[in-house]
Design brief:
With 277 residues, the chain is an alpha+beta fold. The chain contains eight helices and seven strands. The protein has helices at 26-42, 77-94, 100-105, 107-117, 128-136, 140-203, 217-227, 241-276; strands at residues 3-10, 15-20, 49-51, 55-62, 65-72, 118-119, 122-123. The strands form two sheets. A five-stranded antiparallel β-sheet has the order 2-1-5-4-3, sandwiched between helices. The protein has a two-stranded antiparallel sheet with strand order 6-7. Helix 2 (77-94) packs antiparallel against helix 4 and helix 4 packs across helix 5 (128-136).
Length: 277
């Protein structure tokens, strides 16, 4: 027996799954599968195989599908039928149904199971129990590879968590350091203001490093006007009302002094006359 290909087709001729077990070109297998619906329509309804000049189609209808096995004409037809019956049992086992949707959904599982039955075109001496055991058999290398992959994924997750926590700590320290520096700068600014104001009130100086302390414009104008020296008024320039008033006051004082002297003189003359007498 040399099995060329196994396929699952709909009755309309649509290929759902096809598995080749020998080297064949895509054009050839597509041509063989495309010719099958035409051969079934013209073949004998009492048989489940159709022959051409080069190949034999062994098929079995299952509900709305065809399970087709393409072999060479020298293969044993009885072995082919027995192999086909085993292949039809794989669909409900690994596709969980015999319909187009289930076959398309689980096509790879079906292909893996087909590989356990036929190898390089020849039937393996297996049954359903062997196929289940071989299909579910665990590989030590695969298991080790999966463990390594899982460990790498866990390491990557731990590294990501560590990086995230480190970034959060840095942000927290930056926020804490920024707020502390602002508070320290404000505290230092307040102390410098107090020192400058105290030094300005005691020694007349003020400011930071000899600079003037900031004052509002109104206070600055008032202090400047108070500190400015009184301007001397030149004689003979304009009206000098104040000076005239000073002159009038001086004349009044002189008159008062003169009147005092006039009153003091007769008193002294009476004393002298009294002494002479």
């Amino acid at each position: 027996m040399v099995c060329l290909s196994v396929a699952v087709m709909s009755k309309s001729g649509k290929v759902l799954v096809s598995r080749q077990f020998v080297d064949m070109s895509r054009i050839r297998i597509e041509g063989l599968l495309a010719a099958f619906p035409k051969l079934v329509g013209t073949g004998n309804k009492q048989h489940t195989f159709v022959e051409t000049d080069k190949v034999r189609y062994v098929y079995q209808p299952v509900e709305g599908l065809y399970f087709v096995m393409i072999t060479n004409k020298q293969s044993n037809i009885l072995e082919d039928l027995d192999t086909l019956r085993l292949l039809t049992k794989l669909a409900p086992e690994y596709c969980h149904g015999i319909d187009e949707e289930s076959i398309l959904k689980h096509q790879f599982e079906l292909i893996f199971a087909l590989d356990e039955v036929i190898s390089l075109g020849y039937r393996e001496n297996v049954n359903m129990v062997h196929i289940r055991a071989y299909y579910e058999m665990e590989s030590h290398e695969e298991k080790l590879a999966n463990m390594i992959k899982a460990s790498k994924i866990n390491e990557a997750k731990e590294e990501m968590k560590r990086k995230v926590s480190q970034i959060d700590k840095q942000k927290a320290e930056q926020r804490k350091g920024g707020g502390g520096s602002d508070a320290m700068s404000m505290e230092g600014f307040g102390k410098m203001m107090e020192e400058s104001l105290s030094s300005g009130s005691m020694g007349g100086g003020g400011g930071f490093g000899g600079a003037e302390v900031y004052r509002p414009p109104e206070d600055y104008d008032k202090s400047k006007a108070a500190a400015a020296p009184a301007k001397s008024v030149k004689a003979g320039s304009g009206m000098q009302l104040g000076k005239k008033k000073d002159k009038v006051d001086l004349m009044a004082m002189m008159q008062m002094e003169g009147s005092l002297q006039d009153t003091a003189a007769p008193v002294g003359g009476r004393k002298g006359s009294a002494g002479g007498g």
